[in-house]
Amino acid sequence: MAVDWTQLPPELIEIISKKITIYSDYLHFQAVCHAWKSSIPKTPNHLPPQLPWLLLPQSQSNQSSYRAFFNLSTYKFHSLNLPEASHRKKHCGSSHGWLIILDDSPSILVINPLTRRKIHLPAISSFPNVVSFDYANVGREYLLVNPQGERNTASLRQMRDGFIKKVVMSSSPLEKKGDFFVAMAILCSTGDLAYCKNGDECWNIVENSRSFSEDVIYFNGLFYAVNKAGQIVVCDVNGNSPKVSFIETPRQIGGDMQYLVSSGDGLLLVTRYLDLDVEFDIFIYKTARFEVFKLDLNGPRWERVTSLGDMMLFIGENSSLALSASGLSGCMGDCIYYTDDYSANNYDGHIGEHDLGIFKLSDGSIEPLPCYPRNSYSRLQWPPPLWISPNPY
């Protein structure tokens, strides 16, 4: 006798749904029938961190509002309606599944590509080093002051492309209604760190943190930032005024870029080494290798890590992420999945050379990402690809 699965008790349907660990599987579960959909929450709140999708560049001829995402676990492409990230928009990071976007205005938009929920962070014109903003002063809309007190002007496009390097958030803005969250920005122009809390109308500079602008992450309730030499500043912005302390590790010499990654058992430093190639009189930086270190607070010092075991790292313009490869198809442990976040930005549709791939820590080899086969798509549209973790809230 055939079983009518639509007649399962709602409590059993809910128990089954809580065994699902991948968001796309949860959506498929909801779509089975009306009874199943009505028996479980629209937004799951039990899912572990998800395997990131890769937001792909838009081709110059594609003026559609849709953007393509590559799913590593299924090797499939997803097309999402995302006009906010179309041509002439710059992304300056992704954090907890939310994309941070700048355009030719002072606005800083934060959007969830899955749910299309949006919030706005305080405008670029609210940073302390922005003296004034005037739309009527065409080509010199912003008046800035540098740390030496000197004033200079900048256009809308210059501020869009070159003012903010990356924004990282402490949590998803809507993870819990009314929940506290903080956004931390790395400023390109001065190397400062600046932060804002939900509800703030302006950004605040973290004093004494200048030059710690290679990368920043949120870890154990605090923000950690790293400088070129692998030294760490710790920023506590939970109170009325920020508290800053330093972890004085021995200098790491020789690397070109530094990333901080929060893993299950501590803080990792990932050092990126670049080679310079010349193609058709164009200088192109390409990743040669990575080195990984774990913070030992007893030193304090960085201890070399020769194997990540089951862990895989995702780095680039995104908030750096560490995940276990166990139970996830389409990915490998002991690997670093990387995209470029150092090339000269060009957000006007021109073609550029991208540097992305999979670095195997065990033997130092590099493989192409599945969506970019070797010797294909070598010259891609801007902005560069970006890792975004699917997040339903």
TrEMBL record:
On the tree of life, the source organism's domain of life is Eukaryota
The protein's name:
KIB1-4 beta-propeller domain-containing protein
Q: What is the source species?
A: Populus trichocarpa (Western balsam poplar)
Record PANTHER family: OS06G0707300 PROTEIN, OS07G0183000 PROTEIN-RELATED
Q: Which residue ranges does the record assign to the KIB1-4 beta-propeller domain?
A: 69-359
